[in-house]
Amino acid sequence: MKDRKGFFRFGSSSVVSAADLAQLVRAPAALSVPGDVIAGAAAAGRPLNSRVLGTIGSSVCLYWAGMALNDYADATVDAVERPQRPVPSGRIPRRTALAVAGGLTAAGLGLAAAANGRRGLLGALPLTGLIWAYDLGLKSTRAGAATMAAARTVDVLSGALATAPTGTALRRGAVPAALVGVHTYTLTALSRHEISGAPTRVPATTLAVSTATALVTALPTVLPTTRTAALSRPDLRTAVTATGALAYLATYGTAQARAVRKPSGANVRRAVGAGILGLLPLQAALTACAGAPAVAAVLGVAHPLARRLARRISPT
């Protein structure tokens, strides 16, 4: 509950500033979430409607819940590796981080149900399960990267489910969901080396995979033709798709190349941050390829805003 301007009260004793809450949930990084849903919805034939907007709200809440839960679960490790974070620094009690995660999870599921009924929960429930399983047990295992990739894959499919019957949604949303999933897998694999640095082969491999992802995304036939795609101008669609794919490589690819040359922890962290925000141009390219270049352009405009905000609050 809000206690006074800029502060929130949790229970009878914990008062937390809005700035610390924003840092806990990596607030600006949530700008990478709406594009998942929009790319899936565009592939299914309708990039924006009230159900899509409700699904976006649900996914943002679940993303923020995952960030808070991550800091709850990693409090002991962060005390050594990232003592400046809100939980290990003592600015936010650990139990409060768990309460924030639980409250945001409930909000996310509620929004999904309100926006799209049972079909909304068909996407939100698996997404919730993957987020909590990753943070509470799978993160440090071999299944960690695949779990996080699956979460982003489901997020894209939730957008398709918001606009089309289940069978159609899963079929049409499969390609963008897979490409976002592949990106997330490379990003999560790279993030394992944020503190101590990585063997050169790790950023070299993720760079090769993300380059292939950009090339596949830029192909004009990567997504099935929908009514939205048929009505869009082919030249504009191609131009925005190519621009998004190039912007993706120019940010995430360049940061990974720097990590290949010098795979220090600092360079790996920069590459991971670039990869989180690099989702926006990738999502823009997928949305344009599906036939919604105007909506894709909005995602592209959000990318520099997200990068600017990331200078104030780290997305990692």
List strands and helices in order, with pairings.
Blueprint: E1 2-4, E2 7-10, E3 14-17, H1 18-24, H2 34-44, H3 50-73, H4 75-81, H5 94-138, H6 144-161, H7 166-191, H8 201-218, H9 227-231, H10 234-261, H11 265-289, H12 293-310
Antiparallel strand pairs: 1-2, 2-3
Helix pairs in contact: 2-3, 2-6, 2-7, 2-11, 3-5, 5-6, 6-7, 7-8, 7-11, 8-10, 8-11, 10-11, 10-12, 11-12
Protein name: UbiA family prenyltransferase
Transmembrane segments: 275-302
Membrane topology: Multi-pass membrane protein
Account of the 3D structure:
This protein is mostly helical and 316 residues long. The chain has one domain: UbiA prenyltransferase (Tetracycline Repressor, domain 2). It is 73% helix and 3% strand. It has helices spanning 18-24, 34-44, 50-73, 75-81, 94-138, 144-161, 166-191, 201-218, 227-231, 234-261, 265-289, 293-310, and strands at residues 2-4, 7-10, 14-17. The chain has a three-stranded antiparallel sheet. Helix 6 (144-161) runs antiparallel to helix 7 (166-191), helix 8 (201-218) runs antiparallel to helix 10 (234-261) and helix 8 (201-218) runs parallel beside helix 11. The longest helix is centred in the middle third of the chain and has 45 residues, at 94-138. The two termini are 27 Å apart.
What would the keywords be for this entry?
three-stranded antiparallel β-sheet; 316 residues; mainly alpha; Tetracycline Repressor, domain 2; 12 helices
